[in-house]
Amino acid sequence: MNIGEIARRAGVSRSTVSYALSGKRPVSEDTRRKIQHVIDELGYRPNASARALANGRTNTIGLVFPPAGNHYTGMQLDFIGSVVEAAAAQDYDVLLSPSGVDSDRSFQRMLGERRVDGAILMEIRLEDDRVDHLAALDFPSVAIGRSAHPEGTWWVGLDHTALAAACVHHLADLGHRRVAFVNRPEQLLRTGYESAHRGLDGFTKAAAERGLTVRTYCCGDDAASGQACLEQILHDDPATTALVTLNEAALGGLYRGLTQAGRHVPRDFSVTGVVAGRWAETVTPQLTAADVPAEEMGRRAVDLLVERLDHPDAPPRHHLLTPPISLRASTGPGPGPGLPSSIESR
Amino acid sequence: MNIGEIARRAGVSRSTVSYALSGKRPVSEDTRRKIQHVIDELGYRPNASARALANGRTNTIGLVFPPAGNHYTGMQLDFIGSVVEAAAAQDYDVLLSPSGVDSDRSFQRMLGERRVDGAILMEIRLEDDRVDHLAALDFPSVAIGRSAHPEGTWWVGLDHTALAAACVHHLADLGHRRVAFVNRPEQLLRTGYESAHRGLDGFTKAAAERGLTVRTYCCGDDAASGQACLEQILHDDPATTALVTLNEAALGGLYRGLTQAGRHVPRDFSVTGVVAGRWAETVTPQLTAADVPAEEMGRRAVDLLVERLDHPDAPPRHHLLTPPISLRASTGPGPGPGLPSSIESR
DNA sequence: CACTTCACGCGAACCGGTTCGATGACCGGC
DNA sequence: GCCGGTCATCGAACCGGTTCGCGTGAAGTG
To answer: Is A84 within 8 Å of B93 when comparing Cβ atoms?
Structure first.
């Protein structure tokens, strides 16, 4: 059931069948019908490997994301889902590679063995050897996230700095003066994860600007860690009245910790941060937060990649998104109106 | 940078390079070193398409899961993650196909074009044309889930009937008499999703056995639907004191609904069901539930598939799992001790 | 020293497509 | 009636590996 078989049964040559299928050269209506008939009858589909070998394109894109280690977050799920769907819409398949660094076996397989035409990278670090490696190879790729030096590369990212700052301003406007920041796990911060770094940065700067008293924490990606983290926060400074988090997996645990400490959200304590919308709506009270538009980001990444594949010489493009804060129910007035930072900060 | 280039530089023939790499025929230590040296120097990796074409194996497995539609559940995420990792451990890549039925373009691409050596199917329906199709083709595949007639096929599944029944017995033992069942969305039930059907079945039978008064509901896969569903439950029968759910995405909404109705969990109302452990621990109070061992299931599915690929004539195997109920904090005593069903049920 | 044995390496064919140059049939124009 | 030009089709080469059968030189044997 290969192209030769089809050609034989249709009484034509292999090349004619190929042209009939691809339309790259004219084929008479008559023979086209004959060929199509045989194909339908036998349910023939051209072999992907042979085709890829011949024309150098696999019609597959690679999706590179770090190994679960322990957990994936809901946001990662949303990215994966949206990338797969957007790719399918453009007739691309998606090959998954659980690689954190460019020396991973899986990463090498995907690229070195030319299994994919291009790649989408997730969980970008500020200094990311995968990004550098691909750039050096001039291998078509798009990052979901933005490294320290994104110039000249393709990416779609979130303005974590601005987002975290927006959360701070929101809380400061409500009169909160002592605010905690709950980051992703320390190991991620240490290895330079973009969102963890830029988020922390934006938080710190904005807090300084508003003269807030802050403490920052790293927290494991699970409910138990979130609960423990919250206990630590209240232990370190019982006067804390609000927190900003990037860690959606810990959110349930943070809430539980607050409940157990007898703090009512939002009456006694405000919670906000940057998380995927559907997770923000799962908790009670629903989280006032900057909703990560994971679906849009995945789709845009695929679109950029396909554009880059179709136009190898196109200049680099990117999208930097800054979704607004969705007001829900987890933030409320703080102890008092904000004071000029010059007074409060000394 | 192909095998011919390596051969030229090492001063040997292409076949010798191939044998040196595969070890399928002896190569002298001397030439092997020469070849390896050239390969290391050039960073050569054999082209996957060419290799697949020549020996008929892609070293890729397909993971078939239904399109997101609106949402993926956390459980699906866990499956995907564990499958990818288990596959990577066995040096297989994973190709994602968002296909619900065998006529999907993506499904056809994967199989018809021979992009994968075998497939893992998720979200099985009782009558599943994908399963039937693959069985008819004798295409190596493993289902995560069990269709109505699983004899002679390979699968790893959860005993949803027993699990739902266990939840009922747990509640009945606590003295609950009026219990609601919150299923996955109606559309899934209608199209014959295994878990929705078998779960409903197990619930209904066990409830009848224990003489409970029950109502069953379908509920969308999101928090808002969960909240609405709970309101409906209390509206239909305010005396309801417990519920069993298969719908982890709705869980947060169910809890919220209870809170807003002034019912305290577990004092006034008990909640249990079948969900992934990490989600059960996210909500407050933590959910007493049968934890879906998604990680184990994904791993086992890959192991089965690889076994089947390595031994094409091996007899069908399967794993039916029945994880125990993890006692957490969401269930408590009902209105009174259970009465003999003969009395209660009339 | 001639004869087998063996280890090693080579060349050619093959996997199933795509693509290029060539060929032949048919057409209209002069 | 011959010529130039289309149009449809064919054959062969190629993509980059794998694999089979065979040849060759060195080592072992009587």
So the answer is: no
